[in-house]
Amino acid sequence: MPEIEAATGSETHNIDKAVAAKLTKNYREAYGIEESKGFYYGKEKIKSIIEQKGCMGIRVYYGLNSIGEDTLVLVAVDGKWNDIGLTNVAEYGISTALHADSSGSMLARD
């Protein structure tokens, strides 16, 4: 099996607005407009995760909260692709479904 390169924190994941809009529209069309279109996480929490010693990036896990709603769990990842700092993770993102008007996001509308 080939050796996996170490995570550096400099990997690029860029897509343009048109691709991002298409991906989110595909999701809305597949799951309906009642589903959450996304989750918000404050910058201080994101910073606290990525500033952990050895952190090269963030892994996002899909999850279900205690009432069966979709959620995301954010975890720091080290250079060997291991989850680290499991006492400093994020969940409880604010669902865009909770906002009466999320039309301010170009990715939340058609």
Short synopsis of the structure:
The chain has 110 residues and is of the alpha+beta class.
Q: Describe it for me?
A:
A hairpin with a 5-residue loop joins strand 2 (57-64) and strand 3. The protein has 110 residues and is of the alpha+beta class. It has a 3-stranded antiparallel β-sheet, with no helix packed on it. The chain has a domain at 36-110. 5% of the residues are buried. The model has no long low-confidence stretch (mean pLDDT 79). It has helices spanning 17-31, 43-50, and strands spanning 39-40, 57-64, 70-77, 83-84, 94-95. 21% of the residues lie in helices and 20% in strands. The protein is built from 2 helices and 5 strands.
Task: Please give the structural blueprint.
Blueprint lengths: L16 H15 L7 E2 L2 H8 L6 E8 L5 E8 L5 E2 L9 E2 L15
Antiparallel strand pairs: 1-5, 2-3, 3-4
Observed structural traits:
110 residues, two-stranded antiparallel sheet
Largest sheet: 3 strands, antiparallel
Order of helices and strands: HEHEEEE
Please mark out the parts with pLDDT under 50 across 5 or more consecutive residues, or reply none: none
Mean pLDDT: 79
Tell me the helix content: 10-25%
Percent range for β-strand residues: 15-25%
Shape: globular
Report the end-to-end length measured between terminal Cα atoms: 43 Å
Q: Which strands sit side by side, in order, in the main sheet?
A: 2-3-4
Number of helices: 2
- The count of β-strands is 5
Derived structural class: alpha+beta
What value does the Rg take, in angstroms?
16 Å
